[in-house]
Amino acid sequence: MGNSALKSHLETSQKTGVFQLTEKGLLEFPEELQRLTANLRTVDLSGNKIEVLPAAVGKFLQLKTLTLNNNRLTCLPSEISQLKKLETLSLNGNRIQMLPPSLGQLKALRTLCLSGNHISEFPTGLGSLRNLDLLDLSRNKIQNVPLEVSELQTIEINLNQNQISILSPEVSKCPRLKVLRLEENCLELSSIPLSILKDSQVSLFSVEGNLFEVKNLRDLDGYDQYMERFTATKKKFA
């Protein structure tokens, strides 16, 4: 893309606080953006070929939304932790394998989307994200949900299309968790912790496409308590 086109984008962004440059074949995070570290609230560079997010991303202190879906990122710089106002981080369709521990410092974060990456272990260290509403880890390679899941403050966890065969009962201790999506995994009926049905806040538990018939959930102890929560939530939004 020509310099003049980029220049006009930068001029517009200076006024609006929004920089959007999608599907332009960019190979790297535009260096020119660093002139706008004081203004930018939204950056969307989806559908490019960016392989590295530079450490300089930590300078965008006003940033509230960072979207880099469908690029070629394999990791994130630890400097991302400096984005104290960041509310939405969307990195679907990249090649990320692990998250930096510093991600837990993004105290304002509400939405973290990592669908369609190469993550094989459930990320821990996100329990400090007290405002997190959605954690989307669908379409990865996660095989088990560990004890540490209980630290999460999120309202929804999406784990559809992973390889999960082990689900820790600790998930029922997530204080705000209402929606748990586990469609198309490797769960057996015996791997479903009864505490999710009996003792949790979960009012939508989605498990289609596992190694059992969904209707067999009805036979489990606690199913009636779960259905009460499910029905009450449905009525609220009807």
Automatic annotation (TrEMBL):
This is Leucine-rich repeat-containing protein 57. Coiled coil: none annotated. Residues 57-115 form the Disease resistance R13L4/SHOC-2-like LRR domain. It comes from Takifugu rubripes (Japanese pufferfish). Keywords: Leucine-rich repeat, Repeat. GO terms for cellular component: cytoplasm. The keyword Cell division does not apply.
